[in-house]
């Protein structure tokens, strides 16, 4: 997976971007989603419309959208990207806020025409930067219910003709709608609808020009089950935006930070399960605008290692089964609850040779149908074998394995299992004592 952060003014100092780029690269972030909204915001579109209308009333020459001015504004940033060999491969075009309301159909039409023109210019700029994927918001201003597909079919196909590179992918994205001041499910928020749109657009374009970007924050605002959403859109998903909110307001927060009674308000379980079932291997985009902005600029750089860790965590969770497929055979490390859950989830599909444990009292016993062995036996594994850690002390055990010369190491974590098993392990230890599996933390 390609693990990147969304470009925001709270992360980047656009006058001196080299420092932010260096700090993100230092912690291991793979790249940045280049967001043209930073340079050409939705508000700037509305301001331009107001200037045009004012000029019309005064009988003066109407101002025009000038992509050259925007290019000059972001040129310094792109030069810093190029100098650091950190050019973005995915971009997001300017988004219009869902709350935008214009008084007349004529003004809506003008805004949509301006949006099309600006998006055409930004696609050309994105391809010049080397971006292979571009996230595009559908038109919705003044679009009547039932006309969404026809209006946006023309819009997307027009943008497809602007693409000069055969590899450029235009990604539709799920949207909220605004109904009498309330957030509701909008365009492409239903998985079946999004899949149908993408298939029909690709058919009309005559090539695989269109894909999908799943915005987890929008799913939460719309009260959606992300596992079902991911299943409906399927392999068309090529980018996932990881961001959190409270389900009511359009915040952009770090995952797991909007908490009530020690639990996140987001359906991360559904997101991970859905993407894992797809063997997802595309973009993971962390969007944390509000979280980052809440910290002093003096503290913000200290957040970046955490952002990298969150991206790594999602990659691990989503890719658990994909990683298991890498090995012809596997052995497990751990003989507790996590090993037990592995056997319930994946024991039949990826049967282990055996499991091992650092507790010598367990050696030679059987656990969940597996012989428990001394970890030294891992040195005798056949070629193309991997060791899957089934114990919460991942770092400690991985260090132990590497000291033994073992490098093919994977992790199983049962926080987002394919199904739930609530009963905890109870067994009798060889010394006659009862062990609930929690004597030394969660194994």
Instruction: Kindly estimate the percentage of residues that lie in beta strands according to DSSP.
Output: 15-25%
Backbone structural class = alpha/beta
Poorly predicted residue ranges: 433-443
Please give the alpha-carbon distance between the first and last residues.
28 Å
Q: What is the number of helices?
A: 14
Helix content: 25-40%
Rg calc: 25 Å
Overall spatial form:
elongated
How would a crystallographer describe the biggest sheet? Answer: 8 strands, parallel, barrel
Looking across the biggest beta sheet, what order are the strands in? 1-2-3-4-5-8-9-12
Total beta strand runs = 20
* Overall mean pLDDT: 86
Please sum up the structure shown.
The chain has 443 residues and is an alpha/beta fold.
Descriptive account of the structure:
- Helix content is 38%, strand content 17%.
- The strands form five sheets. An eight-stranded parallel β-barrel has the order 1-2-3-4-5-8-9-12.
- The protein has helices spanning 18-27, 42-58, 67-83, 105-129, 148-162, 191-205, 216-221, 226-233, 268-277, 289-293, 304-318, 320-324, 337-346, 394-403; strands spanning 2-6, 31-35, 90-92, 133-135, 169-173, 176-179, 182-185, 210-215, 237-242, 259-260, 263-264, 283-286, 329-333, 355-356, 366-367, 370-373, 385-389, 409-411, 427-428, 434-435.
- β10 and β11 form a beta hairpin.
- Residues 433-443 have low confidence and may be disordered.
- The chain is elongated, with a radius of gyration of 25 Å.
- It is an alpha/beta fold and 443 residues long.
- It starts with a strand and ends in an 8-residue tail after the last strand.
- The protein contains 14 helices and 20 strands.
């Amino acid at each position: 997976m390609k693990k990147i952060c969304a470009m925001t003014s709270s992360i980047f100092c656009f006058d001196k971007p080299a420092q932010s780029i260096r700090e993100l690269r230092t912690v291991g972030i793979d790249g940045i989603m280049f967001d043209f909204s930073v340079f050409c915001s939705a508000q700037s579109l509305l301001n331009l419309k107001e200037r045009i209308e004012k000029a019309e009333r005064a009988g003066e020459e109407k101002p025009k959208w000038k992509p050259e001015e925007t290019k000059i504004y972001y040129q310094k940033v792109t030069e810093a990207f190029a100098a650091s060999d950190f050019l973005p491969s995915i971009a997001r075009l300017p988004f219009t806020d869902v709350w935008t309301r214009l008084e007349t159909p004529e003004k809506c039409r003008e805004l949509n025409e301006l949006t099309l023109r600006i998006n055409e210019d930004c696609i050309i700029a994105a391809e010049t930067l080397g971006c292979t994927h571009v996230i595009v918001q559908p038109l919705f201003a003044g679009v009547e219910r039932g006309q969404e597909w026809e209006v946006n079919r023309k819009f997307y196909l027009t943008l497809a003709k602007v693409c000069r590179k055969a590899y450029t992918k235009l990604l539709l994205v799920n949207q909220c709608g605004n109904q009498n001041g309330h957030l509701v499910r909008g365009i492409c928020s239903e998985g079946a609808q999004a899949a149908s749109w993408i298939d029909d657009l690709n058919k009309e374009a005559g090539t695989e020009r269109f894909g999908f970007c799943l915005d987890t924050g929008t799913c939460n605002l719309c009260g959606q089950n992300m596992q079902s959403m991911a299943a409906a859109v399927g392999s068309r998903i090529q980018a996932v935006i990881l961001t959190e909110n409270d389900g009511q307001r359009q915040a952009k927060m770090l995952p797991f930070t909007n908490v009530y009674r020690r639990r996140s308000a987001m359906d991360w379980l559904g997101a991970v399960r859905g993407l894992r079932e797809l063997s997802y291997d595309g973009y993971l985009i962390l969007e944390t605008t509000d979280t980052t902005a809440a910290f002093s600029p003096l503290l913000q750089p200290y957040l970046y290692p955490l952002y990298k860790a969150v991206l790594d965590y999602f990659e691990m969770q989503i890719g658990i089964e994909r990683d298991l497929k890498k090995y012809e055979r596997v052995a497990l490390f751990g003989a507790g609850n996590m090993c037990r859950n592995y056997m319930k989830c994946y024991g039949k599909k990826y049967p282990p040779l055996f499991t091992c444990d650092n507790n010598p009292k367990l050696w030679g016993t059987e656990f969940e149908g597996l012989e428990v062995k001394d970890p030294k036996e891992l040195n005798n594994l056949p070629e193309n074998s991997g060791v899957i850690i089934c114990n919460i002390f991942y770092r400690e055990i991985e260090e132990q394995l590497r000291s033994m010369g073992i490098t093919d190491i994977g992790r199983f974590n049962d926080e987002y299992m394919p199904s739930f098993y609530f009963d905890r392990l109870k067994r009798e230890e060889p010394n006659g004592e009862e062990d609930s599996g929690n004597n030394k933390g969660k194994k």
